[in-house]
Structures are given as structure tokens and as C-alpha cells.
Amino acid sequence: MNFFLMWVIWFVVAELIVTAVQLLLRKKEVKPAVRVVLIVVKALLAIAFAALPMAGPVQLRPVQPLMMALYAALLMDAFADIIYRIICAIRKTERKFSIAKTLSLVLGVLFFIYGTVNMQVVMPNYHTYSSDKLTTMHKIIFAADLHVGSAQPFSVLEKEVKAMTDEQPECIILGGDITDDYTTKEEMEKTFELFGNCGVPVYYLYGNHDRQKHAEYANGLQFTAEELQQAITDNGIILLKDEYAEIAPDLLLLGREDISEGGERAKAETLTNPSPEKYLIVADHQPFEFKENTVTGTDLQLSGHTHAGQLFPLRSLYSVIGYACGDFTEGESIMNVSAGACGWRVPFRTEKHCYYEVITLQPAE
User: Fold this and answer.
1) Cβ atoms of 144 and 177 closer than 8 Å
2) 275, burial (CB in 10 Å: exposed 0-12, middle 13-18, buried 19+)
3) Could you tell me the pTM of the whole model?
4) Residue-by-residue DSSP string for 77-94
5) How far apart are CA 102 and CA 115, in angstroms?
């Protein structure tokens, strides 16, 4: 609950900063062309404050909540300015500044409520894939980017895991960033105990945040990589680091080490597929080496990491430079990039909903 309170405080601070700056500008005569430029500048600043917490240097992490709050306040203020200018043009008269600011606050609060609620609702996302390599039907669940303790209370995870088990999957694949730099040791241990008791095989691969490599920029190291691995394996969860596992007689899984590990991650061409006649799922937290992974004979790659941008309009920007979310193809291989079951740093998400993937694999007709 504390992170909800802190998020409210950061948002109020951001609104105060945006209001104070505009009060200073109000004292000066501003030409219509300059007003247009100011709207564009506010929108661009909002996008910058969205992008930097998502992909900026780790040194920015202490100020990421304020940056994300400024993103929300600035973006809605820019929209409010556009609406206000349209009203002024229709009425052919300049309205009071208080009207513009009231409109900005109303939009900001609505945006704040939507993004905060959106982060707390995790839904299933259904997919069906067919192949002549499959002899029977399979249902598996892929869940990535839970970021336990970062942006959702633990009660959301408990409901999510129950919903997953209610689907009666053959197995669950945890696709990385299940924990992060803000996860406490107690939260980490409870998480893997929860998945370890779900009654089906659970496979796990690391993401770029799980091992708290940059915890000095968060709350300090809460657990070691060894303690994390111990909690995973002690609960019967199968950890895969560039290793294969047989899910069924016709279904194989390759879990990749995360790309952030550099030399610790094997080259895809060295990971000889032991059963090329079987349908091969490659689980790789980050989607950026999809083409390289196809040398293993990948039929389906499952990835996460992107959060579908998390903050509008980053999904569109990510789509221009790479993979945001959804299905992609490379030759005969398909990659599904999950939007993720949570988000990063603050309880705020204004792009796609939080999802875990429910995947049905069936023989080709």
C-alpha cells in the first residue's frame, strides 16, 4: 500500500510543478504560434519522461517516479491545452486561465485513475498455434514481467496464480523479471512458494532484473543470486539457463539465459537441438535475438521485457525500432512478445492491459 501512497504524492508534486511553471508563463504575453510550440514541447517532454524511466540509465532510478508523474501531468496538460484552444477558437474569445487549468486537472486525475487501475488488473490473453510436429493438444501458460513488489500488491499475484491454475495448463513458463531490484527477500520467497504449490510443472528463466544487479540504485541488495536460485529450486521449479527440457513426447522447451548476461549467455548456434522432430518452444526474456534463436529450429519463441511500452505512446515507438508486443514471424518461426503481467517501478500503466499468455498448441489439420 505504501507504493500507492507514494505514487499519489509524486503525482500531486508533478501537478504542482506544471501549474507553477504555467503561472509564471501566464504573466507574459504569449503569441498563438508560441502557444502551439509550447503544446508540442509539453508533449515531447511527456514522452521523454516516459521513455527515460523505461529505458534510461540505472542512475536515474531514484527519480523515476517523479519523471513518470511528470509524464502524466504534462501529457494531460498538453491535451487540455488543445481542447482549450479549440474552445477559444469556437467562442472567438480568450477564456480564463482557471478554465484551462481545471480542464488539465480533470484530465490528469482521470488519466491517473485509469493508469493506476489498469496496472492492478491482470487478464489472460489467449493464443492458438498449429503444427504438424504436434501429435496431441497442449495448453501452457507463459507469464513474464511480474516485477513482484514493484507495482502491484502481493494479493494481485495470488489471484493471478489461482486464475492460471484454474486454466488447468500442462505447465507454466515464467519468462523472466518475476522479481526485480525492489523485491524484498520475503516477497521473493513467497512468490516461488506460491508457484511451487500450483500443482503443475513450472519452468523458470532469468530476466534482466531478477538478480538485483542494480539494487544499489533501489533499496539495496535484498537477496543474492544464490539465494534466488535456492528459492527457485527448493520449490521444485525447473530453472533453465540455455538448457532444454522435455514437456511432452512431442514438445520441447529451450530456456535461454538473458541477453544482459553477455558472455554467460551461449551462442544460439551452439545449442544443438536434441530432438528436431519435436515442436520447439524457445523462452527468451528479451525478444531481440529472435532471428539468432531460429537456428535451433524454433517453432515458437515466447518473450516479454517490453511491457508493451507501459506508458502511452511508447508502444508505437517501440514498434518502429523493434518488437513491442504481439506475434512476429521469421521464416517458419513465430515469436509472441507478451505485454507482461505487471510493470516497472510505479503502479501506473497507460498502454495495453497486464496479461499472462494462455497458449494452446494443436496438431495441424
Assistant:
1) yes
2) middle
3) 0.94
4) HHHHHHHHHHHHHHHTSP
5) 20
Q: Are 191 and 148 spatial neighbours (Cβ–Cβ below 8 Å)?
A: yes
pLDDT exceeds 70 at position 286: yes
Write the Ramachandran bin of 150: left for phi over 0, alpha for psi from -120 to 50, otherwise beta: alpha
Q: Distance (Å, rounded) from C-alpha 209 to C-alpha 259?
A: 12
Burial class (CB in 10 A: 0-12, 13-18, 19+), 270: exposed
Average pLDDT for 270-285: 97
Q: How far apart are CA 287 and CA 283, in angstroms?
A: 9
User: Residue type for 249, please?
Assistant: P
Phi, psi (degrees; rounded to nearest 5) at 113: -65, -45
Alpha-carbon 75 to chain mean position: 20
DSSP H or E run through 117:
helix 97-119
HSE toward the beta carbon, residue 311, CA cutoff 13 A: 27
pLDDT in tens, 313-355: 999 988 887 899 999 999 999 999 999 999 988 999 999 999 9
Residue among 200, 156, 142 nearest 339 (CA): 142
Please list the residues that pair with 141 across neighbouring strands. Answer: 172, 358
Write the burial class of residue 109 (CB in 10 Å: 0-12 exposed, 13-18 middle, 19+ buried).
Answer: middle
In this structure, the strands spanning 333-337 and 300-303 are: parallel
pLDDT of residue 29: 65
Which residues make beta-bridge pairs with 254? 244, 282
Mean pLDDT, residues 42-54: 94
